[in-house]
């Protein structure tokens, strides 16, 4: 049997082994009649489709607290560095998804009183951002539900499948070059990444993918000084 045939058979067998996942599910979802140009194209479109699905599910999960999944990610990052805090670029480097306009994102969080900022004592151009007591309290309130999120979405996969998925995703990122886009705090060059204005000096952003809707009346953002 030719090697190409064996490889094709192995590929089909592996795909059929994924429980409950029909081979043609993506074509049905996007109403595509013609075959994909290559397995690489089908895999890439599946990744994009899955990423969008998971991102929207996370947005629905955090919406009740008046923050987006991106804002939640920033708060988690700042909690991990509490009480020292981080500079603008350090926050951007740790984010799951690239966010080139960190200042606008931090401005929204500061307006919600979830973070606080101060200038470096030695270099006044550098701004340090810390999570506020209100931000810590909000995360403590969100944690029990958000921590169930991975199991809710991926709990139907077995540990062996999850391990394989992790490995494949890490391999897939190998040809991306930069895993995250360059981050700036003021839209300037890399050398000025941390020389950004404080978030309080930035106009309130218009509603977009990084803007939260009005907080839920029963789960309004915590403004007291209680901590996690």
Task: Outline the fold blueprint.
Blueprint lengths: L2 H14 L8 H5 L9 H25 L5 H12 L5 E2 H7 L7 H10 L3 E5 L7 E5 L1 H14 L2 H6 L4 H14 L56
Antiparallel strand pairs: 1-3, 2-3
The low-pLDDT segments are 1-10, 187-228
Q: Report the sheet-strand fraction.
A: 5-15%
N-to-C order of helices and strands: HHHHEHHEEHHH
Name of the top-level CATH class: Mainly Alpha
CATH fourth-tier homologous superfamily: Winged helix-like DNA-binding domain superfamily/Winged helix DNA-binding domain
Largest sheet, spatial ordering of strands: 1-3-2
Characterize the overall form. elongated
What is the typical, i.e. mean, pLDDT? 74
What is the share of helical residues? 40-55%
Number of separate domains? 1
Question: What is the SS-derived class?
Answer: mainly alpha
What's the total number of strands?
3
CATH architecture: Orthogonal Bundle
In angstroms, what separates the terminal alpha carbons?
62 Å
Keywords:
disordered C terminus, elongated, mainly alpha, Arc Repressor Mutant, subunit A, 228 residues, 3-stranded antiparallel β-sheet, 3 strands
